[in-house]
Every structure is written in C-alpha cells, then in structure tokens.
Amino acid sequence: MDRRHESEPNPHGAEPTDPATGGWVAPGSTPSGTARGPGQGAAEVSDPGSAPSAPAVGGAAADAPSAAEQPRSWWGEAPEGGPPAGSGARSARRLSPRSMVVGPINQLRGLLLPVLAGLVVGGFNPWLLTATGAGVVALLIGGLVTWRTFRYEVEDDRIEIRRGLIRRSRRTIPLERVRGVDVTSTLLHRMLGVAVVRIEAAAGSAGATEDGKLDAVSAAEAERLRRVLLHRRAVLTGRDAAARRGPRAADPAQGPEPGRDTSGTTEDPPGADGVADDIDDPDATVTHFTMPRSWYLYGVLSLGYLLTPFVVLATLLGMVQQSAGEVATDFFVDWVTSTDSAFLLVFGTVSVGVLVALMPLFAVVSYSLTHWGFSLRDRDGSLVAERGLFTRRSVTLEKRRIRGYELLDNPLERTRGAVGLRAIVTGLGDTATRAVLLPVGPRPRVEEVVDSALALFRGPLTRHPRAALYRRLIRAVLPFAAVAAVALAFGAVWPAAVAGVLALLGVPLAVDRYRSLGHGYDGERVSVRSGSLSRSQATVERSAVIGWTWTQTLFQRRSRLADLQVTVGAGAGGYTAQDASLEESVDFAARITPEMVRPFLAADGDEEGWADDLRGPGRGSA
Amino acid sequence: MNTPPHDAIPPRGEPSQPPERTGSARLRPPSRRVSGRAIGVWTLRLLFGAVLTLVVLSLLAWGASSAPWAWIPERAAENAWMLPVAYSVYALAKIAIVPSWRYRVHRWEVGADVIYTRAGWISRTWQLVPVNRLQTVDHTQGWLERVFDVATLQVQTASYAGSSTIEGLDSDEARRISEELAVRAGTLRDDAT
Lengths: 622, 193
Description:
A: about 625 residues, alpha+beta, seven-stranded antiparallel β-sheet, six-stranded antiparallel β-sheet, 22 strands, about 40% helix, B: alpha+beta, 5 helices
C-alpha cells in the first residue's frame, strides 16, 4: 500500500510549497475510518516528479457525493475562500529543522548520568570516549533521519502523518474525530522556538495509538495547526461553524493577528492556506482568567506539593545510589559509625526539622513552576488553558465537547475555602490532568469563572439519609476497632494502641465523608458530590446524562439506600451519588430525565422487593 | 409510603429543597424474564469453577499433609483435609441456591426508547440505557451458552459505565433484539455522548 517516494530533498526546508504537487488517491486504505465513507479514501500527495498524478483523482470525485451532512469541498472544488486545488495548500510539511537538535538532546538527557558515570568510573579511556562520541553522532543522525522522513499534511477532512525510513507508517486522523489539540513546549523547546503538538483523536478507545504527535514544529506553526485543525473540524462537523464563520470567510483581507501569548509571534507562515486567515480574529478571544500572584500560595494546601522536599531528597539519594553505588553506602556507614551519637541525633533532628520547615516553601515554589501564568481563554468556540514556567502547556478543549465540570478540594483547601476546577470532556479518557481548567483558588472567584466560561450549577444539594452516616462510621471505625480488640486479646499493647487511634481518627473522617455526600438538580444541570480527603463535586448538563444505574448491596437494602450512578459519555464515564435513598434517587432521576425513567416507575402499592423475587417465576408478565 | 424514620433528611443548615419535588418514587421490575435455560448455564458454570477450585485445594491439602515441609505448623498439616471439605459444602450450597435466585432477579425490558435491566442476586443493579445513545450492540454466545441455546446481549454507550448486559436470553430472541437495536442505533448518527 505504501507507495511513497522520497524523491529529493526539498531545498526550501521545512515548508515545501511547490505548486506542482501531484496527487493520487488510494481508496479504502485506512482501517480506522469505518464510520466515515469518504474519509477512507486516503490521499497521498508526494513530492514533485515522483507520483503518477492524474488517473486516481476520479476516485476521490466518486467518493465525494457520499459526504453526509453537507456539501463538502473535496480537492478544493469550492473551498470557502481557500486557494485552488492541488496548490501549495495541501502540500506535505516537515517538522521544524530545529527538531533535529531537540530530539537528540531530549534522548541524551536520559542517558547523561549513566554516560557521565561510565566515563568517570572508566577513567576517560579512549575506547569509552569513542563509543560515547559515536553514540552522540548516531543520535544526531537519527534526528536527521526523523526530520527527513517525517511529513504531515492537513487536508480538507483529515490530517496525515507519515514517517519512518525502513518501516514506514502513515497515520490518518479524520478531522471530525479530533477532540483537542495540545501544544506543549519545554524550556529547551522554547529556547529554540519550537513546540510539540499532540492531536487527540480518541474515539471510544482512549489510547496513545490514536494520537498524532508532531515533535517538534515551530511555535508559530503549532499555533497555526491548532487553529486550522480545530476550525476545519468545526466546519466539517458543521454545527456552529458554518453559520458563524461563513460570512467572515469571504473576507480575505483579515489582517494577521498580533502576537498573542507566550508562544511567540503567531504570524502565519507564507503559503499557509486561507482558512487560517479567516479565523485569527483577536476579537474572538475572551480571557476568562489570569492567575493573580496570591494564588500561588495555595500550593501550600496541596498534599502532593507539600511532599516535594521529600520527593526531591529521595530522588537525589536515588541518583547518588545509582551513580556511586556501594562507595556512597560504605562512606555513609563509615561516617555514621565513626561520628559521635549525640551529634548524629542533633544532626538528624535538625535536618528533619529543616525539611519540614521547608515543606511550605518548596510546595509554593514547585506549585508556581507548574502553574505559572495560568490563563483560561475562550477562542473559536474552545477553551484554552495555558500554564507553566519552564514547560509551558497549552490545552485546547472544544466547548462543544465539554459536558460539565468538577470542583475538587481536600480538607486543607476546605479550611481556606479553596477549590480546583476540572472540565468533564468527551474523548479525553483517563488523562485527567489535561482537563484542568483552573488552579486551586477561592471558591467565589472559581465559581465566577465557571459561570462565565461554562455555566454554574445553582442549586441546593440534597443530603443523603442518616443511614449513610452509620455506614461510613462502620466502614471507617470497625476494621481498626476489630484489629485493636484482637490485638488486646493477644496482649499486644502497641498494635492495639495504634489501631485504637486509627479507629478514633475514623470518626471525624466518616462524619466528613457523610457531610460531603449530596446530589442535586437545578433544572439544567445535575450535580453529585462525594469524598473527603479528596472531595469532588461533579456537575454535568442534563443532556449529557446517557443513562442511570442503581446498585444496592444487601447492607444497603436494609436501610433502603442505593448508589445511583449518573452515566455520562465524558470524563470518568459515570458519577455516583453514594448511599442515596433509593426512593428519593429514583424520583431524582425521574425529574431529570422523565422520558427515560417514567415508563418504569411503579404504581403505588406495586412494590418491588425481596418478596417479589422470591415469589418465583410466573408472576412476571412475560 | 413506608419511608423509615431515618430516611428523613437531617435538618442541618444547607439543604433547602425546591418545593415541587415529590421526594419518592419506585422502579417497577422490568417485565421480561430471561430464558429458564439460563439456570442450566449458570449452574454448570459455577460447577466447573467449583470443581477446578476443589482440585487445586485438594492438591494443596494433600501437599500440606504429606510433603515434609517444616514451615507448616503441625496442626495445620493434620487438619488440611478440612479445607476442601469445607469448600465443597460451600460450593454445593452456592450451586443449589445462586442460579435460581439469579434467575428470579434477572429481568429485562426493551421499551420504546430505553433498555431497562435488573441483575445480580444478593446485590442488585438496575440500569437504564436509552436506545438513542447506543454505540454498539454485541450478541455473544459461549460454548456453554450454545449448548443451552441461550445468548448474551451487550449494549454499549459512549461511557464504559453505561454498558448493559443481559445474560441468558433465548438465542433467537437475543439475535432478533440485537438486530433491531442495531438498526435503531444506526439511524442516529450523532457521536452519542
């Protein structure tokens, strides 16, 4: 199938915009696109002079009428405001030449310590030096080969990524299935003015295999790709885009956008297609949020960041252990045995004290590094969240795919009334971090942002029955109490004391867990809250509810409780109201989706229960 | 209604409920039972599992009592035979009770717009899946199911949590339903999230 020709090096470097690009079509080549008729005809546009051009174009034309929703422009027959077909518009692009440097450096970084250790231990003997040099050269050649063989191409309805010198691969991602475009640049990337573009195309199976990764393109090209991909996809899916941007597309005199953000200047590279022009309208960008300085202090409240000094210490120790091995261990043991024990005690106490005292500082510093300059913008129907000092991450979430949001907090954050915000998005799968919309901050401000960017849940949460509290108490206290009792019976005082303390600690935890429970509906959005040490309140639109599941265990049955799971085709897939009253939760579901639940409600007196099941066959009106 | 006293919402500050809420409703059981032959499938499946476990346990017990491993306490080695015996009593009870119990719980109903199922035995699950959100409909039949001429129908939505399974349907009926559902789901070409 792969009849690709790498005929000649392109003298123009990264952006071959040769107008003489020929094209040929091979229908039905990609197994991935079963859902879309026309997209299966994978097109290949290769370098000039290498491919037979004419005959197969008819194949594409034959495919075109089967386009479902709207008349699409295939092969530029009538692209809106775009350049004519077969011109430079769809020519394959290369990665930034600077990726030849970035790739090897990134690979080298992982090997740096072992190589250095090897050199030091080996006493810089010529063989090792030569081998190291050869390794570096090989990496550089690898970078060159990657750059030479890697091509990507945005077509009207798909993006194609081709790569490989010996084992060639071609990945076609239908633009309709692009869920998001993620632009990341590490410090190194930004020094060289490049960025990594990840195209998320998870459909059902959220896996890395579905993604397309361009490592790396120039920052301007990354920005252009993001806009073009999302815009094209919006046109293809044709919901809002056709109506909203149609008229603007006719105006080719739209000026290039002024430099917008940290990713550098965003002027479109020459030869970029016209679609890019009609969407970079600075007016379309609304800034919902930029991070105030004081918010960096909230890093202190996050357990993960509080543990940073210990993590750093462990990493350092691990590095020393790995590189110096037994020498370090022997040295340490010698030092411990030969030093005065009183001094050791003082030294140990002081260093632990210093570490503990440094915890908040480290927390704030590392938190600031990852959340530096956090901003949330609204652009072209998408929310764009950017953050990071050294590694700048930019995540684009299409609003059409956002089904709701999650407010997250832990007990520490609750003492300061602070919450974090995540989006519930279709197609992101388990990569929860990518859906972060806001850093942790005061609840009123976070809710304000939610209200302007999405839509806030304004309703009370129904508390769950008292029996839920007893269940939580039993779960948090009973196991430790039992351990304590057993330990006491066997006369083990210390384990009994520890278990007893844990059992006592379980009481406030259980109470807090109970107080977190709640579910509510404000007429448009459903909200469900649970958890204590990491509490989360998930809110989704009514229309996003794609089913209900009640689960009732034997123990719940006695107190007429049940777990009600709201099924959502986004985020975690389902959000559970734990230990709600069964009757109340059925009514709850019936109020939210009457058409789904009403037909199955019992008339009064027709009760479902154990007795009904044990009455045996014959009763069911089969 | 027979709402027990502890179901009352505790009057602690926060919740003030909208006035229009009725507060309580119940689901009726789905109307259809699965095929009676499903009991056979479940019984045999449990039986095979139990036999396998019993073999393993017996080997362990035999090994513990006869092999000269010093780290096994004397008393444990002497009474090792009790392990498989206790397990077989448990397994027999389970095989006798669970399949027919499960048969009584398992029910299903394909309504105009919604698939409604109930499953489980001690713990149970009620599930509502709207037909217009279906993405795939699977009709599967293991060898044991083929012997008893029953089949399993699985419907999946965009959420893994929204997948519903009906075990032990009569195989002709399962095929009929799956084709019907596939047609109905296919006519709606949204991304169904």
